[in-house]
Amino acid sequence: MTNALTPHSISVVVPVYRGADTLAALVAEIQPLAEGFTTPGGRAARVGEVILVHDNGPDASDLVMRELEGLYPFVRAIWLSRNFGQHAATLAGIASSGEEWVATIDEDGQYDPGQLGIMLDVALNQRASLVYAQPTNEAPHSAFRNVTSRGSKRVVDLLSGSRDARRYHSFRLMLGETGRSVAAYAGHGVYLDVALGWVAGRIATAPIELRDEGDRPSGYNLRRLLSHFWRLVLTSGTRGLRVVSVAGAIIAAAGVITAIVLIVRHIMGGSWPQGWASLIVTELVIGGVILLFLGVIAEYVGVAVNQAMGRPPYLIISDPARGPLGREEQPTPTAEDEEHPK
């Protein structure tokens, strides 16, 4: 039986980078949900708005967004001043949302928006303020990407001392007040899911089946994926600095033990080990380790400096096509034109 209470209202946030070929189909799938739907658990719900956040991708996504905004009254376009990345674009959309629940979904059609009802039921049944999709099938990516994705999340869990990273997915449902609060205080470079984990109460997962992305090329190359992983590491906590400290202590202890062994060997009549090659190799290894650790520390300092300087994670602007940059230059009227206006 359908719940007679006021339907649960949902804002759907879609970060758009390369969605010219997929956005129309995604919004068409959401349209019936905007008219109201019933979850598998019998709860009334509706999608109150779809927020498309333009992250200045390489295709004609902006044209499609304007067209969809004109076709559907529940679609709203948000424009960023430049490309800030998926997480920043998602934060901008969440900050601009207004419904009691906020869902985030990719533009590529990999996730079925019709399964929002499953996630809402899980949130209400488990009293969870944040629900992640838990795929029941393998992601339609290459085997290398799937393996490295799982491996990187395990590394982050090890560094952070938790098991949260294994649940991270871009298809999420969260309480609106939780998401908007995170979007208000999250600093530059903060990984969205890490920031959500700081404040969310109970976190749950919902079984969701993934769909094939089709022929759409991935917006992530190896460099972007590595950058994505490194930002996750840096914002997952300071445990990485502890690893540096422990490793430094181990290396120092190994150096002391080696010195003691050499001294004892010399006292007992042994000769000093010969060979410049081994000495140089040792110095290079230790020097490289030191520089690596200094680099890790510098990365943490860089994150802190960016936040201290107030560098914004994103900047929302008006539609560029309707502002000065989109205005076509008109020829200066001549005296003849003023005398004989068209």
Automatic annotation (TrEMBL):
Q: List, alphabetically, the Pfam families matched.
A: Glycos_transf_2
Question: Transmembrane helix: is it a keyword of this entry?
Answer: yes
- Which terms are listed as keywords in the entry? Cell membrane, Glycosyltransferase, Lipopolysaccharide biosynthesis, Membrane, Transferase, Transmembrane, Transmembrane helix
| Species in which this protein is naturally found | Gryllotalpicola reticulitermitis
State what protein this is by name: Glycosyltransferase
Q: Which GO terms describe its molecular function?
A: glycosyltransferase activity
**Known InterPro entries for this protein?**
Glyco_trans_2-like (IPR001173), Glycosyltransferase_2 (IPR050256), Nucleotide-diphossugar_trans (IPR029044)
Top EC class, one word = transferase
Q: Which family does it belong to?
A: Belongs to the glycosyltransferase 2 family.
Q: Where are the transmembrane segments?
A: 241-264, 276-301
Residue ranges of the region described as Disordered? 320-342
Enzyme Commission code(s) on record: 2.4.-.-
SUPFAM superfamilies, per the entry: Nucleotide-diphospho-sugar transferases
